[in-house]
Amino acid sequence: MMEKEELILRALEPTDVDLLYKWENDMKIWEVSNTLTPFSRHQLKLYVEQAQLDIYQTKQLRLIIELEPSQTPVGMIDLFDFDGFHQRGGIGIIIHEDYRKLGYASEALDMFAEYCFGTLGLKQLYANITINNTGSINLFEKAGFNIIGTKKAWIKTKDGFVDELMYQKLNR
């Protein structure tokens, strides 16, 4: 568990299955999470059980972003495509719409990057963000991520294809 003032990042618990079911099946965020089909509670239960395994086995880490002392979950943050040999991983974050624009994403991203660099010993983090997701672009740029490329017409949306920007932050 990582703590900073009123925010903590904590491991998934078996009691989070219903929360994940609600959030993962919210079609409004499917475009940013690259989700195409809904998740069953059974799938999510198995996922939570496997989340307790070592990051070197699963190649990913998902944490709940929670307010303290109320223990109110406000979002999730992920490390995916973890590569211990090359010391890198992708990072994604989602804040529930009721808690956006309150600084929680920025604080959680800073805490998580510090954990990835300091504890996991990563050299670099990256994020993939569609060109029209200005909120995420601003968040990652504020956190010190730099744009390193554009994947043209990379993501298919209901309105057609959009470019995806690739951001990177190096641990100096």
Q: What does this entry look like structurally?
A:
- The protein contains six helices and eight strands; from the N terminus they run E-E-H-H-H-H-E-E-E-H-E-H-E-E.
- It has 172 residues and is an alpha+beta fold.
- It has a single domain (2-125), classed as 3-Layer(aba) Sandwich (Aminopeptidase).
- It has an eight-stranded mixed β-sheet.
- Helix 5 (104-118) links the parallel strand 5 (88-95) and strand 6.
- Helix 1 crosses helix 3 (41-50).
- The protein starts with a strand and ends with a strand.
- Residues 7-171 form the N-acetyltransferase domain.
- This is GNAT family N-acetyltransferase.
Question: Which key terms come to mind for this protein?
Answer:
6 helices; 29% helix; eight-stranded mixed sheet; globular; alpha+beta; 172 residues; single chain; Aminopeptidase; 38% strand
Brief summary of the model shown:
The chain has 172 residues and is an alpha+beta fold. It contains six helices and eight strands; from the N terminus they run E-E-H-H-H-H-E-E-E-H-E-H-E-E. A hairpin with a 4-residue loop joins strand 4 (72-83) and strand 5.
Uncertain runs: none
Mean pLDDT: 89
Strand order of the largest sheet: 1-2-3-4-5-6-8-7
Question: How many E-type strands?
Answer: 8
Principal-axes shape call: globular
Number of domains: 1
User: How does the major sheet shape up?
Assistant: 8 strands, mixed
Helical amount = 25-40%
**How much of the sequence is in beta strands?**
35-45%
CATH class designation: Alpha Beta
Count, helices: 6
Q: The CATH topology is what?
A: Aminopeptidase
How large, in whole angstroms, is the Cα Rg?
A: 16 Å
The span between the termini is 24 Å
Structural class: alpha+beta
Report the CATH superfamily: Gcn5-related N-acetyltransferase (GNAT)
Element pattern in H and E: EEHHHHEEEHEHEE
